[in-house]
Amino acid sequence: MIVHHLNCGCDKPLGGALLDGRSRGLFGRLVCHCLLIETAQGLVLVDTGYGLKDVRQPRSRISPLMLTLMNIEMREERTAVRQVEALGYAASDVRHIVVTHLDFDHAGGLTDFPRARIHVTAEELSAARGGDGGRTTTLRYRLAQFGAVDQWRVYRSAGERWQDFEAVRPLEGLSDDILLVPLAGHTRGHAGVAINSSRGWLLHAGDAYFHADEMTGDRRRCPPLLRAYQGLMEVDRRQRILNQSRLRRLIADRGGIEVFCSHDALELARAQAASRSA
């Protein structure tokens, strides 16, 4: 399978290096790292980032507080649908979308692909529709983005063991080369997506962590403002830290599995470069 690494949104919150560990100046930079996968079953997206309606009507789709706090850059050419079209495909060619979770910066483009099946954990969809999503429910989940979606494929906690993770399962209508990997903590039903690509196994860890330095070295290192944001948005700290530890072990084992998160700009650049050189 061929995997394209896309940036489907850019946030530039105040904080510079205190937020992303690298930026020079007042503002940091967080990307929305999504995947477009070419499969025998059609195109598959992993997350969508911000969508066309978010760009055109942001205040009706995203919390005004988050619009201000995250300083979101709204650019139509960055939306997943426009990037799919730039690669020579149509929106209707996207047959499946796997969402790591339904936060506003991951699910905004769902309505741009009306023919796609949307794969999500049962816990996540329940929380997003008004269940136990934690204290940030109204900030993170926006019914305007996904309330009209009806092609859900919902997965409860069951499956096989994969690496150090439990209840991992393939997805309806797709081959066993794409797996849903439960990674609860950031949200109740948060999940990663493992892909057996032409370059080996990839694991999109979503928001299980936010900065590459959390995964390497003797201890977790995360810029202070980003660490505070993670703490604000987490639903289950114990589960989040447990799953981070599993990811750290997976990376330390050097088993040939490439792991990346949703928002680290350097990880995205590395993945894009590796994909081009393959």
List the main descriptive attributes of the protein structure presented here:
278 residues, alpha/beta, seven-stranded mixed β-sheet, six-stranded mixed β-sheet, 12 helices, globular
Q: Can you characterise this structure?
A:
The chain has helices at 17-20, 52-56, 58-61, 64-70, 80-86, 104-107, 122-128, 137-140, 143-146, 224-233, 237-252, 265-277, and strands spanning 2-11, 30-39, 42-46, 72-73, 94-98, 117-121, 152-155, 160-162, 165-170, 178-182, 191-197, 200-204, 258-260. It has twelve helices and 13 strands. It is an alpha/beta fold.
Rounded average pLDDT: 94
* Largest sheet properties: 7 strands, mixed
Physical arrangement of strands within the biggest beta sheet: 4-1-2-3-5-6-7
Helix content: 25-40%
Query: Order of helices and strands, N to C?
Result: EHEEHHHEHEHEHHHEEEEEEHHEH
> How many DSSP helices?
12
- The proportion of strand residues reads 25-35%
Structural class: alpha/beta
Shape: globular
Got a strand count? 13
Spans where pLDDT lies below 50 across 5 or more residues = none
Distance between the termini: 12 Å
Tell me the radius of gyration.
Answer: 17 Å
